[in-house]
Amino acid sequence: MGNGIRMSRQTLAVLVRLLAEPTSWRYGYDLSRETVLKSGTLYPILMRLTENSWLETRWEEAEPGRPPRHMYRLTTSGLQQARRFVAEAKARGFAPQLAPEGIRA
Amino acid sequence: MNQKVICCASQKMLHGLLCWTPARFREWGTAMAAELEAIDHPVELLHWSLGCVGIILRQAIWNICLGACCGAWFWITAKEEGISVRNARMIAVSALLIALGFFLAPSFRQGMSVAADTLDYASWSHRDNSTGEREPERLRINAERERDARMLAYLAIHEDRLDLAAQDADHAVAIDPRWTWVYYVLIYRGTKNWSSRPNLQTALWAKKLREWDPQNAVNYLVDADTNYRITEKNQVLDGKRPRGRYVRYVDQRTGNRPWMEMMARAFDAPKYNSYFQERFDLERDVARQLGSDRPLRLTISMMSHPLPSVIGCSRYERFILSNATNPPDLVQQTRRVIAFGERMMAADTEFEQFIGRSVALDGYKKLQPMAAPADQAFLGARIVQLEIMQHARIGSGITLALAMNARIVETCFVLILLAAMTMAASAAVFIFRRMRKSRAIGIVSYAAVGIMLLASIVAFVAYLPYSQLVAQAMDSRTPVKVGLPLLGTLGSFGMTFLYSVKAHVYGWSILLALLSLAGLWLVVRQFRKPPARPAVVSAG
Question: What's the ipTM?
């Protein structure tokens, strides 16, 4: 358990994807495809991570005719904690189920 | 085209649902909906939408259950959460409608009736009016007009006044002699709680029973017992003998010639039937006919069905075994005892089976040393088998397993009652204050609605196992041997602390109402607006 966040396989998979490019902002749908998680699983995880200040969010600038999309990135403290938990999980033999690199957006 | 339609429909659905979500979650809902634009594949689009709908519904249910439970929370935090008072009211009304909607479910109504019957001390007092029918007179008139022997038999069993009960039984038997077994119930009612002379009609009823079903051991057992009790009671009332102790009473019983003759006929009768199946069928059929769904009352009614005197059986069995004059006579007597015990073991109740095993065991143990060597092994095996059965736990493990559910249903029933009375009290105060709105009344009402909804959901779920068992028991194909233990699981109902006070349900209702009013008054007092300050007149 990390600061009230249940470290499930799905949560670790999301953290692994976010750690892969920690400085860039990610879309929910892209994370869903990369982690092979459905929206019903992914968003509760994103909500919990945000509530615990592991994630920061922002709205992208809207393009004409398209609604603005929500984006996510690890905060500084979230980055440190995520690295620690992922390292611990990998030491225990955790291998997140991820989509092949080719399908990444 | 498809994608556009699905995308459009999904977005509309999500945006429609978002109106019902609290403001703090609305941002996330909008974020999920915005992703729809980025999805190309229609199937993925649909999956994504359904996932989002699932999350929103989960949040909505959570908010209705928890938020409505703390309805006041909606009221207080309406501004911070961005929820208008109108929305809070809509949620409260929805929660109230959902809570009331549970009463449409038969199993929920049944659970509430069981909990109410638990609190109602009268239903535990073995009063025989088991259906709670308020108009037995109307039923009686209809049954006599339609020559409905079954209803008359039912009324005979449940009528408090013995003279009326006897009249109903006579009518029922005149129409259809198959209901003669009803006299069996009346005999026991006629011989208990004697305040003066015993009812001499009991001897007549016992005679009718014997003539109707001469093969049944129970009819002789009841006759033996009744006759002896009448004789003894008359002796006591006449002052010919003092009220003896139990041992003296039993010793005198075995010395009574008519009693011994009836017991001998009972032990030689080819069958044993204490009319449990007939009573169970009657109770179920009439409950179905009257549309009554009060399984606890039916269970209590069945539990009050009389049993023949087991002490008499045991005493007679020991008497004949110990008074056999020679070995052949002893063998003959043991065979009689074993045969009677085996017949009793096939009875419908566990208690009769237990007594039957006990009687048969005594017979087998006496017979074994006298039996041929080839039979001794068989008798030994039968003795071991019966002893194991005798030491097995009587009663159903289901009753214990479901005890917690019963407590939960009872607690929820009290909470629902409390919430309903609080709402009623709030409405009364609202009207009394000439329809002036009050923040305190609003808070109390919303909290009551939330509590009622939560309690309804929990009670519904907790009572589900019972409703299944009762449904199985009430099925006309279920025999009494199976049905009675199933209904017996309702025995885990019964708030001991309430039962010990022996208060009537209306007493508790009044107490809860008073407590609700007192609580409401305290809250209203707390939130009462301070008196307006006198206007400050400017000097300038």
Answer: 0.86
